Amino acid sequence: MRVPVLATALLLACPALAAGVAGPVDLSQPWALPAAAGADTEIMMTLHNGGDERDDLLRAACATAESTELFGPAQPGGTPQHIDGVPLQPGQTVTFSPDGIRLVLHHLAAATSTGQTLHCTATFAHTGERLFEAAVRPDAPPPAPPI
Predict the structure, then answer these.
(1) Is residue 121 one of the residues assigned to a domain?
(2) How many domains, in total, are found in the chain?
């Protein structure tokens, strides 16, 4: 009978375990631009690695999109480049932006409009899967307070 008591003590001492969070990456302020059905849109967000080891955003998926793809900043005079992941060093914060790193949702099943919420999953190398909701809005939210 010590196992349930120990498990309960661990969940009370570490609420992140109770919530199913597997690691130290914080995903904040996710938002997406409105778009028509069949079109593409982008999700912007901020990631912060609060852990002691590197973690990588490997991929993301959203229920309303046929597929998703990570893009990095455009090369001078070029187009944005597909990237295989977003590395997050310990203590590092990465903010997605229209001219920087961003998550592109391809071929939306339905139009998205201001006020809607997109349900998505981000997959990290060590943190694992994180569910998040991206608010659809026509412009960027105010900057988040420093982490």
Answers:
(1) yes
(2) 1
Mean pLDDT per 10-residue interval, the chain, length 147 residues: 37 37 80 95 95 96 96 82 94 92 96 96 95 92 65
Closest C-alpha among 49, 30, 144, 45 to residue 92: 49
Q: What is the pLDDT of residue 115?
A: 94
CATH number at residue 80: 2.60.40.1890
How many Å apart are CA 23 and CA 38, to the nearest integer?
34
State how far the alpha carbon of 70 is from the alpha carbons of 15, 60, 115, 124, in Å. 31, 8, 24, 13
- The amino acid at residue 122 is A
d(CA 123, CA 47): 12
pTM score, two decimals? 0.78
- State the alpha helices, DSSP H only, in the chain: 2-13, 15-19
pLDDT at 73: 87
Q: Is residue 43 part of a domain?
A: yes
Structural domain containing residue 101: 22-136
* Structural domain contains residue 84: yes
Q: Residue 31 CB: number of other CB atoms within 10 A?
A: 20
